[in-house]
Structure formats: structure tokens, C-alpha cells
């Protein structure tokens, strides 16, 4: 992503603010109390070690796996037009990704540690998984640039939908409808879909990096605008640290850019250690463990999962796509025929070939409406390109 060597700062150019472009110099800058207003910018890469696929990898990414399903096109799962007609694929994913299913990573806890030390000015995240919140970062410190599962509302009248009812719907595998009976529109988590605007919060805070004295960018390809421009909002002499599997964007082009090209969890551990915070960080992260949350003692090492992170990620992707496949029941010889009754939100499911309608395992409490036009719709130009940019590549379907 944007590895333009010519744009990288010449190694002979001295840093303006740091003593050197090294992790130790960043740690010294923090220890000296010169970093009191830190902005953190994150993406899918900080959650992959939690087991959440990054959607784009050729083999393990969710996109590659969605492509083998009979969705009209892979990105339909995040298309507001398709969702109106058939919310099942999205809700199948939502049941898996809904907060509570994954443990935050130590990188999420590192962000919380910055907050607890009073150093976090703002976290800008592209992630929708809410793991920063789960790690303890408070709502007012987070800008969820692409929305998240933290709130939900009716897609028609925008009335907020209570969290408890949403949890119940997710638990019961049903699709929630607006609490206002006269509306009865579909409810959706406030994740930015194709055709939807970024949250106002993003635009209200986007100049904040200009006030920061340190910027830490982690786990993002910086390929999605307008988020990708955020690091450029930092002042020229403001140190910027990239902890990522690869160099991205224009990170590395300034005199005080420090590139830590490595795994996020390893990188934050090293930074915490250099700051003298490693034990504190490990303790904070341990509090996010399921056993700690339920007040149980830590299980024996023998109980730890034996699979590698890659194997666990592959298992997760397989599980997700299998469930979507089952719920959709859109196999070659099992075309689902969904009739759209937009006016009264009533629909019925028929089988195209044998007249028997397969029962969707995901019940709506009201039957699910479908928009056959939406199913044929081409990907829209706006909206979710900035959320799932790879989905705008043509599906192989
Ligand atoms: P991306 O474009 O997939 O880039 C991820 C970046 O992280 C890449 O540069 C990888 O090299 C790097 N990376 C992956 N794993 C690690 C790791 N363990 N350590 C270090 N680096 C790693 O993801 P972006 O977030 O930049 O793309 C924007 C999209 C992805 C956002 O709109 C998200 O909504 C969307 N997304 C979010 C989630 C989530 O909420 N967890 C999951 C998948 C996709």
C-alpha cells in the first residue's frame, strides 16, 4: 500500500522533535512527559489476533469466502438496498461479529492504558467490532469512523432501538423492527453501509490530530478515505508512529515518523516495555479475559487453545461463511423466492422449482421482505467503499 520509497524521509535528515527515529526515542519522549495528547488511529489489523478476519486476505478473508455464496454480489451483505429486501445475510454476520463473541487484543488494552494514564486525546477507529470499548476505552474517547455495533436504529424513521432488545434479537436470531408500531421499519446497527454517510462525529473531530503531540497508527492499510488522510492532519513536528505489518500511506515521509513494521501486539508490548509499563499492560489485558470477567481463576496452561492464530482465524471464517450459506439457502437447486411487500412489511418465501419454501432459520418475528431489484443491484458508488474497499472489486459471482 503506497510503499513509495522516494517519498520516505532521507535517513540523513535529522528528526525535529525526537532524538532518533526509533522506538526507544518514542518511549523517552513519552516518559519525559512530552506526549500528553496522543491520537491513535486503528484498523482491522488490531483485531485479527482476536480472531476477526480482515475480510480482504485472498484465502482467509471474508470477501473471498462470501464470493462462493449465491449472493447477487459479495458486497450485497453491506448494501442498504439489499438489506431492505433481505436482511438475513447481514444479520447472520452480525450474530457472529456482535460484541461479546471476541476478546480484545493486548493492542486494544494498550489504547485503554493510554487513556488510564490520561494521555489519550482520541482514538479514531475504522473497526466496527467495538473491541476498544470492550477493553475499557470510554465512549467519549472513541470516534468510530465507519460506525459500529454500539448503537442501532430504524433505517426508516431513525428512531434509536434499545440495546437490550437488540441483544435479545441477536440471541434469538430474529431481525428486529422499529419499536414505533406505525413505522415498523427494519432496525440496523449503526454501521456505515453502502449509500450511507460517515458519522457526524468523524467530521467534528477530524482536525483533532492537529492538536496532538504524538500519533500512533496501527493495523490499517490507510487505503480508505477520508480516514487515510487523518495522519496528515498532525503538525509537522509531531512524532508519528506506525505499528503495522507493512508500511502504509505516507507514513515514513516525515522527519519524526517511526516505522515499527511488525505485528501490532508485539509492537505495543515493546513500546510498553520501553515506557516501563509492560506489567501494567499485561495486567490490564488479563482483565479482559473471559475467566477474569466472570471472576474465575485463570485456567491452566493446558487449557489454552492448541491451534495457531492462523488456524483459529481460518476456523472462524469457515464457521461464518457456513452459517451464512445455511441461512441464505441460496444454493443452485434451492433458490429462495422472496416477495417484497414494502407497504405492510409482509413477505413469504417460496421455492422457485418445487413450490416448497425453505424455512429461513433466522426468523424475523415478522416474515422477511425481499427486494428482487435490490438483489440485482450493481454496487453503489458511495457509502461502504470507504469501509470495505475490497468489496467494490467485482465479485466472481
Ligand atoms: P485493511 O485494509 O484490511 O488493512 C489491515 C492492515 O493491517 C494491513 O496493512 C495489514 O498488513 C495489517 N495487519 C493485519 N493484521 C495485522 C497484525 N496482526 N499486526 C500488524 N498489522 C496487521 O483494514 P483497514 O482497517 O485499513 O481497512 C478499512 C476497513 C476494514 C474498515 O472500514 C473496517 O470497517 C473494515 N474491517 C473491520 C473489521 C473489524 O471491525 N475488526 C474487520 C474487517 C474489516
Secondary structure layout:
Blueprint: H1 23-31, E1 38-42, H2 62-66, H3 80-85, H4 88-97, H5 106-116, E2 120-125, H6 131-135, E3 142-144, E4 147-154, H7 163-172, E5 187-191, H8 200-205, E6 214-218, E7 240-244, E8 257-261, H9 264-275, H10 278-286, H11 290-293, H12 309-328, E9 336-338, E10 349-351, H13 372-376
Biased composition (Basic and acidic residues): 300-314, 336-354, 372-384
Cofactor: Zn(2+)
Active site: 146 (proton acceptor)
Structure description:
This protein is an alpha/beta fold. It has two domains: 11-293, TPP-binding domain (Rossmann fold); 309-391. Helix content is 28%, strand content 12%. Strands 3-2-1-6-7-8 form a six-stranded parallel beta sheet. Strands 4-5 form a two-stranded antiparallel ribbon. The structure holds carba-nicotinamide-adenine-dinucleotide (CNA). The site of carba-nicotinamide-adenine-dinucleotide has 28 residues, from loops.
Strand order of the largest sheet: 3-2-1-6-7-8
Ligand inventory reads: carba-nicotinamide-adenine-dinucleotide
Structural class: alpha/beta
CATH topology of the largest domain: Rossmann fold
Write the H/E string, N to C: HEHHHHEHEEHEHEEEHHHHEEH
Shape: globular
In helices, the fraction of residues equals 25-40%
Amino acid at each position: 500500500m503506497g510503499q513509495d520509497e522516494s517519498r520516505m524521509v532521507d535517513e540523513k535528515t535529522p528528526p525535529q522533535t525526537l532524538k532518533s527515529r526509533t522506538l526507544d526515542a518514542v518511549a523517552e519522549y513519552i516518559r519525559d512527559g512530552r506526549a500528553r495528547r496522543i491520537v491513535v488511529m486503528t484498523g482491522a489489523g488490531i483485531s485479527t489476533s482476536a480472531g476477526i478476519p480482515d475480510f480482504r486476505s485472498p484465502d482467509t478473508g471474508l470477501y473471498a469466502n462470501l464470493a462462493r455464496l449465491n449472493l447477487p454480489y459479495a458486497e450485497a451483505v453491506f448494501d442498504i438496498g439489499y438489506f431492505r429486501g433481505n436482511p438475513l445475510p447481514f444479520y447472520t454476520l452480525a450474530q457472529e461479529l456482535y460484541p461479546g463473541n471476541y476478546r480484545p487484543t493486548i493492542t486494544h488494552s494498550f489504547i485503554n492504558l493510554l487513556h488510564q494514564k490520561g494521555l489519550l486525546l482520541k482514538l479514531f477507529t475504522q473497526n466496527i467490532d467495538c473491541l476498544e470499548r470492550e477493553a475499557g476505552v470510554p465512549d467519549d474517547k472513541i470516534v468510530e469512523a465507519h460506525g459500529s455495533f454500539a448503537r442501532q436504529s430504524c433505517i426508516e424513521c431513525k428512531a434509536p432501538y434499545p440495546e437490550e432488545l437488540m441483544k435479545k434479537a441477536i440471541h434469538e436470531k430474529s431481525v428486529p423492527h422499529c419499536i414505533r408500531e406505525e413505522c415498523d421499519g427494519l432496525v440496523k446497527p449503526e454501521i456505515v453501509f453502502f449509500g450511507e454517510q460517515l458519522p457526524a462525529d468523524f467530521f467534528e473531530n477530524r482536525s483533532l490530530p492537529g492538536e496532538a503531540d504524538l500519533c500512533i497508527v496501527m493495523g490499517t492499510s490507510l487505503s480508505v478515505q477520508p480516514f487515510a488522510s487523518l495522519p496528515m492532519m498532525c503538525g509537522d513536528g509531531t512524532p508519528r508512529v506506525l505499528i503495522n505489518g507493512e508500511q502504509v500511506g505516507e507514513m515514513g515521509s516525515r522527519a519524526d515518523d517511526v516505522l515499527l513494521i511488525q505485528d501490532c501486539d508485539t509492537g505495543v508490548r515493546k513500546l510498553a516495555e520501553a515506557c516501563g509499563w509492560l506489567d501494567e499492560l499485561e495486567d490490564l489485558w488479563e482483565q479482559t479475559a473471559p475467566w477474569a470477567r466472570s471472576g474465575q481463576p485463570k485456567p491452566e496452561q493446558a487449557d489454552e487453545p492448541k491451534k495457531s492464530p492462523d488456524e483459529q482465524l481460518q476456523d472462524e471464517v469457515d464457521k461464518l461463511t457456513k452459517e451464512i450459506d445455511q441461512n441464505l439457502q441460496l444454493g443452485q437447486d434451492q433458490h429462495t423466492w422472496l416477495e417484497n411487500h414494502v407497504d405492510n412489511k409482509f413477505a413469504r418465501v417460496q421455492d422457485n422449482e418445487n413450490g416448497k419454501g425453505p424455512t429461513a432459520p433466522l426468523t424475523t418475528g415478522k416474515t422477511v421482505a425481499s427486494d428482487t431489484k435490490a438483489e440485482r443491484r450493481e454496487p453503489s458508488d458511495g457509502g461502504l467503499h470507504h469501509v470495505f474497499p475490497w468489496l467494490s472489486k467485482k465479485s466472481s459471482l
